[in-house]
């Protein structure tokens, strides 16, 4: 009986530790969305999470580490979202690109407080190499996949001089701009409208594959 308990206990502790870390990261997201990076303290995070300062220090050691892990959490969540969308999409490049665009404006990814935190970290990236690296790598992976899909679409449409990488970068810029609009003027645009703007753009560039939204 004692041996069975020993097998269960480490797993239970690992699960509990993972949940506690996620609880603290989500509290950090809430705080940064409200106060910004400079205005968020460890005390703010502990109060939002309903935990003690000692628990935060136990799991993250420092505010710097907590913030870095929070950015990594968002980055991993974003990549997992579009990767899963690709996995469940149809076989054609148009279907896959459609899935990726929709993923960018899904309720989980395009949640207002998460968008606020993304921009908060980008605002600090110039002076924080760790933030810059994480944000840049996140964009690089996404743009690389979009570029590959665009090459396939251009080949199907017989575009002989199509700049796939430039288009992938421009689509990412459009998405980021729409995210900013959703953050700053939520009463003037919603996620569905923002997503449709991206498809309007795709319809102009790839009229054989996409239709403009009504």
User: Order of SSEs, N→C?
Assistant: HHHHHHHHH
Architecture (CATH level 2) name of the largest domain:
Orthogonal Bundle
- H/I helix tally: 9
pLDDT average, as an integer? 89
DSSP strand count: 0
Describe this structure in words.
By secondary structure, the protein is mainly α. It has two domains: 1-61, Arc Repressor Mutant, subunit A (Orthogonal Bundle); 65-214, Orthogonal Bundle (Tetracycline Repressor, domain 2). The protein has nine helices and no strands. The protein is elongated, with a radius of gyration of 20 Å. It starts with a helix and ends in a 9-residue tail after the last helix. Mean pLDDT is 89; it is low at 1-6.
Write the layout of secondary structure elements.
Elements: H1 2-39, H2 42-49, H3 53-60, H4 63-88, H5 93-104, H6 112-124, H7 129-156, H8 164-184, H9 191-205
Briefly characterize the structure.
By secondary structure, this protein is an all-alpha fold.
Features:
Tetracycline Repressor, domain 2; mainly alpha; 214 residues; single chain; 79% helix; disordered N terminus; 9 helices
């Amino acid at each position: 009986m004692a041996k069975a308990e020993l097998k269960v206990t480490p797993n239970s502790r690992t699960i509990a530790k993972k949940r506690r870390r996620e609880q603290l990261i989500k509290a950090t997201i809430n705080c940064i969305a409200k106060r910004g990076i400079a205005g968020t303290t460890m005390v703010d995070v502990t109060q939002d999470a309903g935990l003690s300062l000692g628990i935060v220090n136990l799991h993250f050691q420092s505010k710097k580490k907590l913030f870095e892990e929070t950015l990594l959490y968002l980055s991993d969540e974003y990549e997992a979202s579009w990767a899963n969308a690709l996995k469940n999409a149809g076989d054609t490049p148009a279907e896959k690109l459609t899935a990726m665009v929709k993923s960018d404006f899904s309720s989980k990814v395009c949640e207002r407080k998460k968008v606020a935190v993304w921009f908060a970290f980008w605002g600090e990236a110039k002076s924080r190499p760790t933030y810059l690296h994480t944000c840049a790598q996140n964009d690089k992976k996404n743009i690389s996949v979009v570029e590959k899909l665009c090459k396939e679409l251009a080949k199907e449409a017989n575009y002989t001089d199509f700049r796939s990488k430039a288009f992938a970068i421009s689509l990412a810029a459009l998405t980021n701009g729409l995210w900013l609009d959703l953050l700053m003027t939520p009463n003037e645009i919603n996620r569905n409208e923002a997503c449709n703007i991206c498809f309007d753009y795709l319809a102009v560039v790839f009229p054989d594959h996409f239709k403009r939204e009504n």
